[in-house]
Amino acid sequence: MEITEGAAVDGGGADAGAGVTRLRAAVRERWEELSTSERAVAQYLVSAPTESLLFASAQELGAASGTSNASAVRTLQRLGYAGLPALKRELASDLTAAVAPEVRLQQRIAHVGRDLDDIWGEVFDEAQERIEHARRLTAGDALREAVGILAQAGEIHCYGAGASELAARHLALALGRIGRRGRYVGATGFALADHLLALRQGDAVAIFQPGRELVELGVLIDRARAVGARVILVTDELAERYGPRVDVVLTAPHTPTGITTEALTALVVVDALLLAMATLDEASAVATSHQLTALREQLLRPRRK
To answer: Model-level pTM?
Structure first.
């Protein structure tokens, strides 16, 4: 199959991004190994506009290429991708760097349209796709190691800034509800230094950051290492960059389109960690839950004059 090095997927010029370039190279390299249906999918992948691929489901790729959703998924795997979310992630990186946020919002609206049923379906389809991708990418041994680190920690510092604040706050709050000490940390810049002083030997740090490298991450990890605290990183793209410096990495794929909230998969990862923690010390979790219920009941009682 002839695919020139410089041609863009949508035929719009020679400035193809890294994700598009990798896709085209993979198709060139694997073309002779692909079946007839897989070639049809591959041909569509390298000819469709990037925006179309970002919003497409496996079923839509199958229909557009005259094949099936199974053929679309199989083709992506043959091309070296873990699945459709992995391809979307790489393409989204190119688009995010080149297209303004308001333009991407317009693209989402144009793709989804105004039909409520279509909107409902798009959101749930992407959410399911991201959650299934997270499930496949996080190995059981990584999850067990993360749970072990949290279970042994004197206090758990939950760091998340921006969109990652939701998952970090959820973990910190829910830890208290099962009898564990957790604190939320979301400061950036100089303000983070005060929180770093609170790190102690035997503590654990759970960092939530999907893709963007922050100066704060390196400083936080270095401080944890210096005092003897262990580190869990929940991320999408930073595993290679920070993996060697932390104890364990859990994968939480971010949204390639912006249709679903950034924190979705991180929140699901947190729920898995919390349930595992509760099962390790059921008596403490149940007792704390009982105390919480009793305190809530006191707060709901009408006050006597």
So the answer is: 0.74
